[in-house]
Amino acid sequence: MFQVNILIGGLVGAFVLTPVSYADLIQATPFEVSINRTEFGNVSSLITLQTANGQSTTEAGCIGFNNSTTNCGITQVGKIKNTSSTEPLPGGVTSASDLRFVFNASQPQGGSITIDQLQVTFYGSGGAVLETATFPSTPLVLTSTLPGTGKSGFVFQLNASEATALNLSAVTQIGAGFSASGAAGGQDTLFLATTGPSSVPEPVTYATLAAGLIGFACLLRRKPNRAIQKSLCAAPTHRR
Predict the structure, then answer these.
(1) Alpha helices in the chain (DSSP H)
(2) FRET partner for 80 with CA separation of 20 to 30 A, picked from 7, 191, 198, 204?
(3) Backbone angles phi and psi of 120, in degrees to 5
(4) 226-233 helix and 203-219 helix, angle to the nearest 10 degrees
């Protein structure tokens, strides 16, 4: 009996120490945007679905830890394209409130589509589920879309309190899934995006900054050390 009590206590303790949090996704403002990869910082495809050879108008699926398509919350219907994958946390992101999840529906003639399920899952080390965020107001009917992949998208984000509560330092992968009806072929994609440009400067940025500093030094005519100023501002000479 003593051993059984210890086992049960250990199991209860494990559940207490590793809780799974459930959060809500909300519509961002603005909700519908043009996806031109300049309105966001990092943009990565999480999952792309397509109906099965025109035999159905329903598509569903999810991508879980290490790109698993099973046991991630949504049963597959139709095709999950091979470009689908979980993504690491984008570089430079320090708050979950900066994350955006963009649903890009590619419907002929800009037709409508209905989101029946939408979820995003944050995984920790070893595939532990840290948080699963779902959009509770389904079904959500999108009455019009722009035809073509990557033309426009509908933007979702974590609500404020749950974005604050999520420990980003523990997140190793982000997975997602959705189900949609009224789909006319697809491909329909859920993107992971951030609200602004990456905070990690490109090499060109460093070069531009250095040139700007030198130019600024050349404008400081009242600087006492003329020899240093002359060496910085002189045009380069070429030896023959």
Answers:
(1) 2-17, 160-165, 203-219, 226-233
(2) 198
(3) -130, 135
(4) 140
Q: What six digits make up the tokens of 112?
A: 């409508």
Rounded to an integer, what distance in angstroms lies between the CA atom of residue 112 and that of residue 126? 39
One-letter amino acid of 218 = C
Beta bridge partners of 158: 25
What tokens appear for 20 in the block?
């799974």
- C-beta of residue 96 within 8 angstroms of C-beta of residue 90: no
CA atoms in the 13 A half-sphere facing the CB of 70: 0
What pLDDT, in 10s, does the model give residues 160-192?
A: 988 999 999 999 999 999 999 998 867 899 999
> φ and ψ at 162, to 5 degrees?
-80, -30
Question: pLDDT tens for residues 115-150?
Answer: 999 999 999 999 999 999 999 988 999 988 876 666
Closest CA to 187 of 51, 91, 83, 75: 51
**Nearby residues of 219 by Cβ (< 8 Å), 6 or more positions away:** none
Q: pTM for this structure?
A: 0.70
